Amino acid sequence: MSFPPNLNADLHCHSTVSDGLLSPGDLARRAKANGVELWALTDHDEIGGLGEARAVADEVGLPFVNGVEISVSWGEDQTVHIVGLGFDAAYEPLVTGLATVRSGRDSRAHRMAAELDKVGIHGAYAGALKYAGNPALISRSHFARYIVELGHAKEVKSVFDWWLAKGKPGYVSHPWATMEQALGWIRAAGGIAVMAHPGRYRVSKAELREMFVAFKDLGGRGIEVISGSHAEDQTLECARAAREFGFLASRASDFHGPGESWIDLGKLPPLPDDLTPVWSELS
Ligand code: AMP
Ligand code: MN
Ligand code: MN
Ligand code: MN
Questions:
Q1: How far is the CA of 106 from the centre of ligand 4 (A)?
Q2: Probe ligand 1: pick from 19, 107, 154, 171, max atoms within 8 Å of CB?
Q3: Cα angle at 136 between 64 and 167, to 5 degrees?
Q4: Residue 42 burial (CB count, 10 A)
Q5: What are the pLDDT digits (tens) for 177-214?
Q6: Positive or negative: CA dihedral 202, 206, 212, 214
Q7: 134 falls in which pLDDT band (50, 70, 90)?
Q8: For 79, phi and psi rounded to 5 degrees?
Q9: In terms of Cα–Cα distance, which of 228, 253, 225, 239 is closest to 35?
Q10: Dihedrals phi, psi of 193, to nearest 5 degrees
Q11: CB of 276 within 8 A of CB of 247?
């Protein structure tokens, strides 16, 4: 099947298999109800939800492609997210590579909790784990929910500004995958690598360009131009980068759940019409 350019594609969201609030099946039903015409589930460093997502997507008649959002360390303590789309989820090096990335999350969470303890937020490891369910999936989002539960913030977003963003008390640096590994796994599994929300990285313009160059050199094909987390100027900047570097353009809500997201599944503006959509390469 080939997909038209003006498709309501949403190629980035999270389920309870990472830091989302809905099950993969509930996301599939919600995507369908919201008018999504091509969907990918992209949990952080985990592909365990893809089977259920695909089964329910098939049931409701929603075209689906496999997805994942891999955490990558770049330069000095910058985390970059690389989305893989349309890969073979049984490809062993991808499966074991992702397991290795996840295996660091638990010790990182203990270090985060120790730092939060020093500023008066106690019991954060157990508190976050309660939301995550599984130590290999524990993320800053789960800490954020616990901090909201304690009453230190009204909503998850404001927790990051005070406690969890880089430079804040609960932030610890952590070695994720390298860009080379992430792209290697995705490409060898037959997938397309897309840089997630490039507008959101707190780097200089020169550093962002360096990142694009390295990503492209390693076989990166696309970037998210439309992202639920992009402000308008960031969308324009990413559209310019897509033209300049010849990247395919993706459309991505980054939906995590009702009440915790910038934008709902499928409720995104269209891509600028001179760009080539990433779904022109998906089937
Ligand atoms: P982690 O992979 O543990 O570093 O957690 C990263 C996740 O935290 C992201 O995927 C988002 O879901 C969430 N996150 C990061 N920054 C923010 C923010 N400023 N507001 C809301 N959620 C955020
Ligand atoms: Mn997330
Ligand atoms: Mn991300
Ligand atoms: Mn995401």
A1: 19
A2: 19
A3: 100
A4: 29
A5: 999 999 999 999 999 999 999 999 999 999 999 999 99
A6: negative
A7: very high
A8: -95, 135
A9: 253
A10: -95, 130
A11: no
Percent of the chain with pLDDT over 90: 97
Q: What spatial distance separates the first Cα and last Cα of the chain, rounded to whole Å?
A: 6
Taking CA atoms only, the protein residue closest to ligand 1 atom 16 is 160
CA–CA distance from 186 to each of 40, 94, 247, 248, 283 (Å)?
A: 15, 7, 16, 16, 16
* pTM reported for the whole predicted model: 0.98
- Predicted pLDDT at 1: 62
Which residues form ligand 1's pocket by a CB distance below 6 Å?
Answer: 19, 44, 71, 139-141, 156-157, 160, 256
pLDDT in tens, 251-272: 999 999 998 988 999 999 999 9
Please state the three-class secondary structure of 169-197 as a single string: CCCCCCCCEEHHHHHHHHHHCCCEEEECC
